[in-house]
Amino acid sequence: MNRRQAAAAAVQQASAMSGAVDLSVLKERAEAQRARAAAPASQPAPAPQPAAEQQAAGPIPEGASIIDVTEATFETDVVARSDSQLVITLLWAGWSEPSVQLAQLLEPLAARAAGAWTLARVDVDVAPRIAQAFGAQSVPIVIALAGGQPVSAFDGRQPLEQVGAWLDEVTSKMGIPAPDSGVDEPEPEDDPRMVAAEELLNTGDLDGALAAYEAIVALEPANTEAASVARNVKFMIRAQQHDPTILETAQPGDVDAQFAAADVLLLGQRPEQAFDRIIELVRTADGDDKVRARTRLLELFELFDPAEPFVVSARRKLAAALY
Q: What's in the keyword line of the UniProt record (predicted)?
């Protein structure tokens, strides 16, 4: 069974799906696509349609990623494309008023998405074999495809609120953020305590800045921004106290010396080497020293975005060292 046949076989169950397919593998690709969103994207040319069908489907909104799919282009434009981007496939017909209404709902949403996902329109009169492959008994039907297979679907005319909620659920699983509403939100007022702490940091008063940020966290434990800056400032204070020659003099079994060497490496923008030093301690140390090494490594992880490749790699190495 090829991928097209597999997709067709699965779509009949897709309406009942709720996250049946793990889309996390596509999240990184989605984020890369968003990074390119500022650059003009190439617009796939729509397939020729009869004049009546063109009017029913509606013009493609500027900036939207909308394609009209034929039997000849289905494999590349829908199945293959879904390997790298979410594809929302609409099975519709010009004679079906609910189809036309649903298309008119989806097209502006695709325009707002600005290329984060593609709307693939399939006119079942022009491409009846695609409808047959999906087992469609009526139109309209909307199927979300990712990784070459359906992940969710619904049929029939739906209110805008329900269509939007369905799209939000599917796109959130790929890490695609909600589109800009177009309404300018007022800028939040700066917290004067954070401003004061930042001024201390900018003047080089690390001790004063640390005290200021920690005071904010003490009053507001949920203030993640203040907590993150406090961790970084605390690290800077500690790391600047080490003699850089510790990199050459630290003995393999000397836990404190290896901690200091790791700080120096981090200060020098060499996180992979810093992590490796402490992971080696986790692997070779016993008892309290092993616990201390693991705790220190987890603290250093918190200085970085957990999605950074070197952090992900170090976590794998830590797991191997522990087990």
A: Redox-active center
Assess if residue 182 is contained within a domain: no
**Same domain as 236, residue 194:** yes
Return the bridge partners of 152, or none. Answer: 144
Rounded CA separation 239/305 (Å) = 20
CATH of the domain at 10: 3.40.30.10
Q: What is the pLDDT of residues 61-79, one digit of tens each?
A: 444 489 999 999 999 999 8
**In this predicted structure, what is the pLDDT of residue 18?**
33
**Pair 206, 281 in one domain:** no
Among 2-6, 106-110, 212-216, 315-319, which is the least confidently predicted range?
Answer: 2-6
Write down the mean pLDDT value for the chain: 80
Structure tokens at 262: 């790791």
Number of domains in the chain: 3
Same domain membership, residue 227 and residue 270: no
Give the model's confidence band at 37: pLDDT under 50 very low, under 70 low, under 90 confident, else very high: very low
The pLDDT of residue 274 is: 95
Domain that holds residue 217: 189-241
